[in-house]
Amino acid sequence: MLPHPISRRTFLTAGAMTAAQLGVASSAWAAATRISRRHARGTHANTWLADPPHLDHLRALALVAMDAARVAGADFADIRIGVQRRVRTDPYPGRLVTGMTVGYGVRAWHNGTWSFQHGNVLTSEAVAATATSAVSGARIYAAVNEHLDARRRGVRPITNEWAPAPVVTGEWHVPVAIDPFTVPFDDLQEAVDGLRDITAPAAAWEAGEARSAASRLEWHAETRVFASTQGSLVTQNLMHGALGFIAVAQLRPWSSANVTLTAPQLDDFSAGFEALAHPDFVARLRHLRDTARRWEELPVRPFNDVGRFPIVFDGQTTAAIVGGTIDMALDGDRIAGIEADASGTSFLTPIDTVLGAAEPQCSPLLSARVDRALPSRVAVQWDDDGVVPEAYTVLDHGHVVDMHTTRETAPLLADWYRQHGRLVRSHGCAVAPAPDQVPRCNGGHLTVAPSTASMTLDAMIREIPHGFLVINGAVDVSPGLSRGTVRHADDGVVIEIHRGVPVSRTPLRMQFLTQQLLNKNLSAIGDATTMRTGEVLSLKGIPWTGAFQMATTPAALCRDVDVIA
Questions:
Q1: What crossing angle do the helices spanning 185-199 and 279-296 adopt, rounded to 10°?
Q2: Sign of torsion, CA 453 456 457 462?
Q3: 503 vs 245, which has greater pLDDT?
Q4: pLDDT for 25-79, tens place per residue?
Q5: Under 8 Å CB-to-CB from 47, ≥6 apart: which residues?
Q6: Per residue, what are the HEC states of 355-386?
Q7: Predicted local confidence at residue 150, as pLDDT
């Protein structure tokens, strides 16, 4: 995770100092330091993009839609309307990609039933028609549900209960010192070339072997307006960076002997072009390079056995496991069964037996908090229900003590909250990946507390008589998130360990039961030096729409994990 964005002057000064300290004589730094002199020169992303709709126009359209929804008789309605821009560059002579989309989505609630309509024509007539259509749909669906409920003798009673939220107004933006959409393309490409050079293993050129590294720079900017029939009207200007770097120790072209490692934790930030100058950014790239170089020296050897073995999962793999199981299982819409016929349910049900249970659902080693604060990629001031997100604890020494909630799903926890003297309110987890998509419940950025005692990755490896180390492992989970598989990925590596010493690399799969792996099997977690961030794409709804959930976790040592050759 990168620290908060910095000023232009600090950016230029820090960039020059860091380059000198690390000995990075790359074109990335030269490109960065030239920005202040050449900022207005050259072709940049905004040159190719149409002028975005004016903010006042978007706000006016949002109010028109809400007026139309009131006239149509909605019990409640809201709208998300906005413009999304994208710029991406690959290493020379790679692609330079820009794009812009506009759209809006109106949600209407009538007599306990939702309806949703979307569009992309930015006129008063179009948004009013969309809002009216959404309310009409809700009326029709509500009538159908009433008929079905009458036949079912009230098995599924309709309720209008929704967690209260104050009316909000205002504007917020991610602090950006240098807008990447105004940075000349040649500077973007020089930067990505230079950063690729950092990730390339130094031994590649010394040994004269054919080795390579890949990288990309990508930013997504969005202006989004939220309005509701309750009177809320807010604007957010977001800037999400996606700096995807891959270090490759390539011994032979297309060979299984190659070591490929990615750094998705560098995707986790909200900032502009100035993020490239932070010392931590370059240090992580160099660490990525050194890690690939370390493991490439091991021989590749197949493992033709099955059984149960101790496994050390590096922080990135642990983040993928936690993010793809416990984190998503805490989503309120999964727990409520809203996603039962789409993405699936949750093993953390029934809710009244999970919250306050005498026995912990996870290992007592695990405590975790969630927030949507800067500089995380998922940082916002208001969620897509118009709620200000709050930080909250979900795991306390293995016990589930809270869940990811929206205004719709927070009432599920009403009894639990009242028992603990807390108000029933949403945690601010409503997420619409784009303005014209339905908001879903997605957790923010989950962070597992590391061990307070010294426990480095190497120390954990030394604990293994015969087992494995998994770096950048790929994780596949079941629809209910109760079980899954960790497997060797194209951008990961599995190391066989004998008597605490890495001896070879091998492609393997590890099967697990979530509650067993993160409870009975978990025997140690790493210290702060092992913390890494991973991202999990949560797909929900019909048709599926995807939103990222972020997790930062330490490495984990698990015993008796099922290994399949």
A1: 40
A2: negative
A3: 503
A4: 344 434 444 443 344 356 889 988 999 999 999 999 999 999 999 999 999 999 9
A5: none
A6: CCCCCCCCCCCCCEEEECCCCCCCCCCCCCCC
A7: 56
Q: Are 265 and 534 in contact (CB under 8 A)?
A: yes
Q: What are phi and psi of 104, to 5 degrees?
A: -155, 155
What is the mean pLDDT of the segment spanning 305-318? Answer: 93
Does the pTM of the predicted model rise above 0.85?
yes
pLDDT confidence band for 535 (50 / 70 / 90): confident
* Alpha-carbon radius of gyration of the chain: 25
For residues 255 and 18, the model is more confident at: 255
Question: Are the CB atoms for 433 and 547 separated by under 8 Å?
Answer: yes
Nearest to 130 by CA among 101, 112, 107: 107
CB atoms within 10 A of CB 513: 17
Nearest CA among 215, 185, 177, 188 for reference residue 199: 215
Range scoring the smallest mean pLDDT among 179-193, 402-416, 491-505: 179-193
User: Omega into 439 within 30° of 0, i.e. cis?
Assistant: no
Cβ–Cβ under 8 Å, residues 85 and 100: yes
Cβ 467 vs Cβ 310: under 8 Å = yes
Q: Kindly report the number of other CB atoms within 10 A of residue 402's CB atom.
A: 20
- Which band of pLDDT confidence, cut at 50, 70 and 90, is reported for residue 95? confident
- Looking at the chain, the domain(s) classified CATH 3.30.2290.10 span 55-83+103-165
Output b/e per residue, 67-106; b: 16+ Cβ within 10 A: ebbeebebbbbbbbbbbbbbbbbbbeeeebebebebbbbb
Looking only at the bridges linking them, the beta strands covering 76-89 and 213-228 are antiparallel
The architecture that CATH gives domain 55-83+103-165 is 2-Layer Sandwich (3.30)
For the ranges 140-144, 335-339, 522-526, 539-543, the maximum mean pLDDT occurs at: 522-526
**Is-contact 329 443, C-beta < 8 A?**
no
pLDDT over 90, % of the chain = 59
Longest dimension (CA), the chain: 78
Give strand pairing partners of 100.
Answer: 85
Q: Which helix (DSSP H) or strand (DSSP E) does residue 287 occupy? A: helix 279-296
